[in-house]
Fold these 3 entries.
Entry 1:
Amino acid sequence: MQMKKWFTSAFLFALLLLGLGELGARLFFAADISGRFDYGYSPDAGFDLRPDGTVHLFRAGGRRFHPQSFPRHRPPGTFRVFVIGDSVPRGPSFKGAYPYLLGTELQRHQIQAEAVNLALPGYGARRCQVVLRKALEFEPSLIILHVNDSNKYEDEREYRRSLEFKSWHPRNWPMKIFIFRRLYEAQVEKVFWRLVPDQIRLKFAANDPDAQLAANPDPQEVQARVRLARETTAENVALAREHHVPLLIISQCRLINDGPEAFHFEDHGLDALGRSLAGDHVYWLSMKEVFSHLPNARSYFSDSGHLKQSGHLLMAQALVQKILQDEQQLGLSALKREGKDGGG
Amino acid sequence: MDSARNLLEILGLPTNRVLLNIILPVGISFYTFQSLGYVIDVYRGQSPACSSLLTFATFDAFFPQMVAGPIERGRHLIPQLEQTKAFEPAYLHDGLRLILVGFFKKVFVADNCAILANYVFDPQTPLNGYWAVLGALAFAFQIYGDFSGYTDIARGSAKLFGIDLVVNFRFPYFARNPSDFWGRWHISLSTWFRDYLYIPLGGNRGSKWETVRNLGVTMLLAGLWHGASWIFVLWGAYHGALLILYRVVPALRSLGDEDASSHLRGALAMALMWLFTLVGWAIFRSPNLHQFGAWLMALGHWQTALALPWATSFIWLLIHAAPLIFLQILTWRYRDETNLGRLAWPVRGLIYAVMVMLIVSSTAQDTEFIYFQF
């Protein structure tokens, strides 16, 4: 009776609807929610270590890994390769991307290989580092770090979102509720971005970090982000060295159309970065070098940076060559022996 | 602030921004009009003088409505302030409901529509006819959501203390003629001008031309109340002209007759008035006369190549205006646009839940209430 006095039926019904919505989302879409608001900076980084000793990859931040699993400990004689990067190594499909093709190509060369695609769209150096730190726990034989320069902005945006999400400020409290946050992001990423032209959104709209960042193209800030991305790549290399894990850097290139028949490649200084970091168990492969000598190079690209499956195959073959070339340093020969011993 | 600075500049007096920030009270226009109304009422003997300084001070600077109204009359608010009331749960129910509706109008409707309006009325925006119309539509929903949203929040906040503030908006976009519009839009200001200016000038008791003069003067001053700028003079003059036109042109007068029983005629009258209102908002929103000229010129250019694609932005506007229109249709028969209390409780509960979702997930930038500047 007392309750009825203070709370109206409509209020309680609204509360019930919202509560049911949240509960339903958490009960029935638990997998979907899991890792949804990590923004790529979760220490788990989308790796789920199961009690049976296998590692399953799930969502990292708002992005999904290709569904894959592998044993926590590298099986004896197995050449375990982790490929970390953005949408380019992630590929048009799991089996159409160079990490998977690399595995099959290595096996064709009688190498017992396990290639895991740890690439996530939009991941720049900073979020790749989170993935790298986790990947180093799972005994890789080689880590391939695909270095691109177009994701520093998204790294920053997601970093700000993660801070905002973790903030104690009461204005962020409703955002801890899944249905609110999901609807907010659906509006930001689907409704908002698609309906309102960029020119309007960036100038007049949104308190989302994305719009804030884009609306403030301060050259110094942009430069600082470029610097940070490069420094983080150097840190990533140092991290792999620290763990005595060989690292292969792939420097991304962009295909620039100069006309119906003409084109050229640009590397935005990433080749120089790769070259400068190479040495002492760190290897480097230039994507520009892989494609630039091909007269029909354009046919391997789906846009200026992404590859078609044929391009991925070419990359996988170039990687195999590189790996075989440095077989000794990469410990492949030892692995082959280990395999023989381990396999009896 | 800007108006005060302009005035001081015209008078050749120093215009120190910091000093002005301190000496100019918040909501000066509302505060002044409320105080003036009280003084005139007491002078006329229509309202007793308040004997308690505390009550008077509370009336004069009652926090929910001091900044942007509704402009209260002493005879309505002071007796409520003098009355000792025990808290009742109904105050909480009504107050929170008003606040929720207000937040919905402001955060979901107004702030999201503002994105398009701000773009269209930016001097650097290349416009064509589509964008000009879209901008006026967006601003119409923005200003209505913004101002009536503020009023709802103010009324709701006052209601939590058991105080009823006057209704300031009553389905203004359903008006059939200009007089009807001013009876529904910013009611506390239009009745203020009616009672303290229009009627003392003679109202409609004299000849036709005296009525025309009185209407013109009242609306010009109502325009100027918004700020010392030519654009507000034009806006006031425009609405004055509409009121005069409806009074002197018999065809318009009969079309906009509120008692007309024909639904078709009623719809036509509403559509025509809505069109006139949109042009009025285009004047109001334009930063200056030149920009309004550019907006008018754009109505003559319908080439799509001149500006950005508009169709998806129109959908954006529709997404943010449709829930408000739906709410208005739902409450239309109760003659009170915030009176959700009479709907069945499951419907109300559903509306509350949806409103909360839309408010919390709204993506627009936080923007100040438009009427805070007046």
Entry 2:
Amino acid sequence: MSAPQILMQRGLDRPGESHRLEAYEAVGGYRAIRKALSMSSEAIVEEVKKSGLRGRGGAGFPTGTKWSFIPRGSESPTYLICNSDESEPGTFKDRWLLENDPHAVLEGMMIAAVAIDCHLMFNYFRGEFSYPLARWRAAVDEAYAKGYLGKGIFGSDHDLEVVTHYGAGAYIAGEETGMIESLEGKKAQPRNKPPFPAVEGLFRSPTVINNTETLATVPWIVEHGADAYAQYGTEKSRGTKLWSCSGPIARPGVYELEMGYDLMQFLEDDLGGMLDGVGLKGIIPGGSSVPVLTPDECRGAKLDYEGLRERGSLVGSGGFIVIGDNVSAVDCLLNLAHFYAHESCGQCTPCREGCGWIEQLVDKILLGRGTEADLAMILRISDLMAGKTICALADAMAWPAVAFIKKYPDDFAALCAGPVDMDALAAEVGKRDHILPRAS
Amino acid sequence: MRRNVGTEKDTAYGGRRRSPAELATILPPGTLIPDLREPEELPAERADVPVVLEPGLAKSPTQEVDRGQLLTVTIDGVEVRVPKGATIFQAAERAGYTPPHFCFHRDLSIPANCRMCLCEVKDQGKLQTSCSTAVADGMIVAFDTPRVKEAVQGVVEFVFKNHPLDCPVCDQVGECYLQKYYMEVGRYDPLPIERVHKDKVKDLGPITLDAERCVLCSRCVRFGEEIAGTSDFMIANRSDHSEIMTFDDRPIDSAYALNYTDICPVGALTSNDFRFRKRVYYLKSAKSVCPECSTGCNIYSEQSEDTVYRYRPRYNDQVNDSWMCDPGRLSHARVADTSDRIVEPLIRRNGGLTPIDWEGATAEAASRLTELAGSVAAIAHPRMSNEDLWELVRLLKAAGGSAVDFRADDSWRGVDDLTDGILIRRDPNPNTRGALQILSPGPDSRVGEILGAVAGGGVRGLVVCGWDVETLGDAGARALAAAEWVLFLGPRRNSLLERADLVLPTCVHVERDGTFTNHAGRVQRFWPNVPPYEASRPAWAALAAITAALGGDAAPASAGVSFRHLAAGVPVFAGLTHETVGDQGAWLAGWERDRMPAVGADPMPGVRAPIIV
């Protein structure tokens, strides 16, 4: 192992009991919240800002900055939502945290609540997370029993309640404003921004929404200080990040890496390389929404926000999907398209109709009935979807679609019914690949 | 007086219109190019009236506009100034361009989900939805760019992905946004695509739902939540299986259900009352006012071959916003029903009523009124227009009579009572407020007194407008038995004709022009949509002719002239003319209001487009 164990140490040290409050406190748990309660809320926000912690849910927005957007002295109550609706294909890091270290998440939520003067916080669970939910509920019960939640937590004058809510299994409820709608009892359909949740979120009140992993990192930062955290990682991507790794690799699972870790070194050393007899076809580094990287692009890539962006992909939610050379890119894309076509909330026209359309066309190609025109159509549809909808789900469909055709044109051509003019296809890709993320 | 509020026109599709010549180059040879209906022009007599922009009356509780601060915005090179808080969409309308749209509706919250009104804003990478983006000073916006055009064309294509190509059998043709946009930006190369199938022809009581045609703009969902308060529709399922439906496919039980068919931009929701009765491009519209209650919703009356086929609401932010109730809307059937209309003037001879021409009838009335020498009283009707009532007052004066009232029943007491919190008022008459002002008959009804005087022989002649014997009751029966001469005016036969000595057929409101005064004192104008039925005449004309024959002033040449006389004679109408009343109405003097609450059941709907002037 290569990295400091900020997030995973407790879970790995005491498997089977790390989720209990006793075990958590035995290794210093709930010290950070006591410290936070003695600090001013501005000081907590400042500390988190200084640490350089960025949101681990996908967008990578600086956490302290997000907290600082909450208006001080607002007449409406302030809410905190922990986003545990981890539904991105390939991502299962939050599940690990909730199963093995729920108290870290809870303590992180408490600190965030103190920092933004919130007295009612929510943890929104993915509907399918029954085991993590049970562990979480047990942890909350323990905390209430000890007086860590409820009236005057830890003997302070800060009242704090937590509501555990679990969704009905909609990917889009993981989008922050979709989550707010869902918590309000409505269909999870993302809202137009502005207004941003920090101004008008849950029940039209200022709201902070953070990813589970982000919040679980906060206690360590408060306890050890921003500088200690900022020592890890690169200049713009501080600290560590969890990566949930799947695919034909020797040791799949959840890993904690220092930001800026070398991608190929991770694959070869930590993950144990590819399974015997399987070559590397590509890696989707940040969950199903981000563009795939070819082996060439992987070589020398750094696992951090800037490093992956420079290669035309994103950190996303850290769903590290390794693709073997025994599968067709068409199959991969169909799998993703099927997912997005099923999960589009159906609000915006381009995404609602486009995701299903792409799935239809990819399916047609896989069945050997597709043509060059269908490939051009997929590219065109992707272009018409990306950046033209309320939330980023349309982009999450469009990016992989363009990236897969761009990077594995032969796989697609091989399955098409008629001949495919590879130069013409490359030209089509050239017209549409401006939608892909690029180094800023 | 015309307000620039949200979409300027009632049937504003937006988008640019391809000329028929341009379409001919795109469509296969021989294709019939439909003539898509444009918003109605103002009546000719109004064309030269200058358009006056009044200071706007803020009413949206959710979004404030700072009228003191005007921002300069450039839309496709045209510079316009709009108040702070206005949206790009509204600024574009100022600049003469209505962006294409499905989901945006000026009286509903803004979801920005159809993605049709996209525009490019200088220095912003992504395309913006103009309906939901507020303007900033110096903003430079463009709709006429290849990027925007491709995106809008893409949205139209996306919509068509799962939309049936059934225009020939769709009743929305001619007022379909999708059809309009396809004509303008469609690619005209239909692709063989597998469509998602949804339910067709679901009968929901007053309306029919065709889910396949739905573009999921969510206007119906928002209307149900924000205006009707009945939340009839929801969008079930996700992605391209999204579908509007009512819970358990239950029929809609709402007095506002037919508004769903107005706001549906496509043929997904159609009115069971109107669908397949008439193609809309055969309809001729006139601006009118609903005569079914004292609210006085602004409407269009629409006819073909002199039959009124439907009413639909006409925008007025002081009265009904964009809505009207179903009972009011369905009352077009009553207008179209001529089975009980009086065909021509009738005179009682030898115990029976026989036809007589208007000259004879007018002369007869004048001579009988002269004989009565002032011993005459009248019972007016609150369905009569302001002009009718004024001419009745003039006639009585010329004849020397004086006693007049219109409150033969108790309905007038409900003139202000909003029964459902939305639009429907208890008083089922359109002009009770006008009658109270013009006849100024005191706090309580004098009808009993009048009838008593007639029954007792103190008054010998009686003019009855519209009322029947049953409503006038026993006192009425005694009065009618005792009266020497009874003149009846009204559009329809009723039991009073058995007693009337002279019967004058009058026009219903869609056959003539005039004004009503609604409960709140707003004088509102209506225009003729169909010719008068047979020999019937507007009541004001019939009454004024008799006045002239009695030796009074000459009959006014038009309802407008009559109204001018009314304005000179009744102080609360001072200064008003048909022209200043216009198509949005005007307040009676002393009745002005700064702020009318927005119509709707939800006191806190989402953010709507602000009223900018």
Entry 3:
Amino acid sequence: MLRVFFFRDGPPNTMNRLLSTDLQVAVARVRRRLRAQRVLERAVTALAGAGILIALATLLDRLYWVAPSILDGAVGLGVVIVIGATLEAARRAPSDLEAARRLDRHLGTGDRFAAAVDFANRAEPTAWMLAAIADARRHLDPERSETAAPLRMPRHGRLAVIALVTWFGAAALLIPMDEVEAQGLARSATPGPFALGAVALDAVAQEELLAQEVQETAEIDESLDPQIQEATEDLNQLIRGLRTQNLRLETAHQRLASLEARLESFARETGEDALKELERAKRAAARRKKTGRDISPLLEAIREARWREAAEALEAIAKKGPKSRRRLGRDLERLAKRLESERSKREQKLRQERRRLKKKRADSGSLSRRDRRRLRKNQRALERLEREAARAGETGRQLERLERELQSAAQDLLRRSGASDLSPEALKRAADLLRRLQKSERSRAQMRRLAARSEAIRELLRRAAERGKKGQDGQKKNGRTRFMRLARGDGEPKGGGAGKRGGKKGKSVGMLTRSGVARVQVMSQGAGGATSGRDPSRSGDSSVGHGHDPDMLGERERTPVRATDVNVAGEEGEGPSSTQVVSAAAQRGFATRGWKRVHQDYRTVVEERMERQAIPAGHRRYVRRYFNLIRPR
Amino acid sequence: MTAETRPEATLSPEEIEEKVRAFQRSIGTLKEEIGRVIVGQSEVVEGVILALLAKGHVLLEGVPGLGKTRLVRTLAEALELDFARVQFTPDLMPSDITGTRTAVQDARGQTVLDFQRGPLFTNVVLADEVNRATPRTQSAMLEAMAERSVTISGTTHELPDPFFVLATQNPLEMDGTYPLPEAQLDRFLFKLHVESPTPEELHTILDRTTGREEPRVQSALSRDELLSLRALVRDVPTPRHVQEVVVQLIEATHPDREAAPEATRRYVRFGASPRGAQAILGAAKVRAITRGRFSVATEDVRAVLKPALRHRLIRGFEGEAEGVTTDVILDAILDHVGEGAR
């Protein structure tokens, strides 16, 4: 069965004894080469087709238009096409007649060999046919016949090369620039740019993802910022993709990076400056001095950042009767002034000065040197304030508008105090602004939740990658083990690994007390006859011991001298500074009480900073991991 | 029984090889003798010899003065054959070429009707400007070509063997002519175009024909030798793949067949008949043996394709309107059949 796939000379008895050996050899050689050329042609053509198919699939995959399974399918199909076409071509051997005709064309013998092959296979060749066979034998030139069917470059060779280069290019080069960072993360976990496998999550990770998926329905809220809604939907899609194992590790990292970039962009808009503005607004509302009872619910709501309730309180103010309008107007005016930010005040002051200087220039025709300098300085200060306002983001702008609307409403109330009806326009606008603040607040909360979920997913991916890399990353693992040992206070192993041989293991634990560092030697249970790892003079077997060492407590002391009790008092004082604790922990391990305090302090600060500041995507994980590794044990 | 007259089955391969060598030599000698008088026109000369040995007739197409009559006369002289030239005119009657019964007095003084043979009763006939005769006369002529006999008043008169007709027609002057019907064109084995000589050939022609003495040909083959060669040609075997090519070519001339190329579908109304296939293979056999081969090759088929089929394809309206010649269509057919015909 298999013989059809090898380059045999053809089925037995194809050649006739009437043909000379030279002619048979020449025809068989041409036949072999024709077959080889045909196989090559088919294989290369199939390779070109498959290459185009796979290159297209890779391109679409790199653009995230198709799932990785499509690329897998395309690669599989391509391989099948190439192998199938090659085997099919190998199976179909050219006939002797075809080979003889090729030989005729090459030698210019006018179908003599083809006729000879034909006539030799006739049942009863005539004398003329025998004469033709003899004539063919006379015209055979063995040397020239060797070059009758040389192997040539396949017709679609160039196309195949282009397809393969396109494939490699699409696979290796086509990476969006804004996702390079995610690529960097993924690269450490994936075998290379041609990795085809989807992320394989373990059961625990699947459960965690399921829990994340359950959250998603609760988190999509129409009242959120569209940017956050979109990010939520993207994260949910990512989770679904991971759960159904339709995503590659690299793609998952890229999507996470894209998501985090958007969250960062949102965080910048409602960032630290915006939070400062909110804090300032809350503090302003907390000052109840000189405000009446009617405005108290509004101030309370602002102080506690309950913006929806604040809006309702403001709307309630609009319904108050005409008697209290003047008082309400004054209260709102005061509130507006309190809400007015330092920047607004400065800006207002600068603009007044600017108007004055410009008026002066218009009146006198020119300005003194000093005034000109002041005008330029004024201009620069205004520009600086504009930049600060931009940093305050949407929240800051809303607060400023709120202040203006409250101011406007207050003036309106004061002006119309005698009127029968109250124009609620300014108050309504202020209420709307408060509702928008509510929306911003919720969006920020959702953003924080999304960031946390993103972090959790990144950790899952890291675990999946770690599991895949087990056995390949021994060196890194050893380094981490060493770090963990240090963290436990084991110190550097010495004595050529003698500790492993010992049945007992010495363990030094550095303990930090209020009065200083004391060193305690703790002996673990083990079989007798073993020794500490630090003592190379004694050796024990490597088997695990059982029972207790009879000398566990040591021999009874029989000191001939009389014991004297001595009271040792601890030293009074603050104890070591944080710097001393950190230094000691780095040398002796992270198992002291002082270290626990320092670690807690730093970790809190770090968590707070990470939440507020724009940390590059993926770097948070390293920070958290670091703090996790150096946590007190 | 000599080797010349024994049937092929009794010949050994060595004897056949010897006969083929002799054939080659004879044809070479014949070409040399014709070449003494006829300058250039190698394709026409070869076509005429192939048709003669394949027992066919030839239609020569070319303007007057290109040496058509001279070629036929020279051929007849080189082969020691009788030659007759008939100038076809509209008033030429069939009996003028076939012969007629006339009243003559016999030896006893009685008047009897005796058959007077016409010019067809010869070995080589030159039917000059055959398209000027009426269809009736043409029909009589073409019947004689096909049957190699003439029937007058119920009596059949065999024409001499070999009987070889070379008809000419002028492609320019079409006024007052009667173009040959397709059915009658089919009777010609070859239709050959006689081209004008090149300047060099014209110099040679002038040198040879304007002096005191004109070149004379010598006998290259006797009549019996010619008949022997004609018999030998029939025995040349045809490999199956060559015959397959001939079939493919004929199929490709029919516009209603799947094998037909676009040119055929567009420009041809009727394709070649089986007689066309016979003509190709018959002429290819002669060509193979004249080149020292013992079987027909595809290159022989390719070489005789145009002269054998160019008058057998009936062009459609589009082909005639666009002036597409049958040679162009046949080139397209050769390209279409492709690898097999190479």
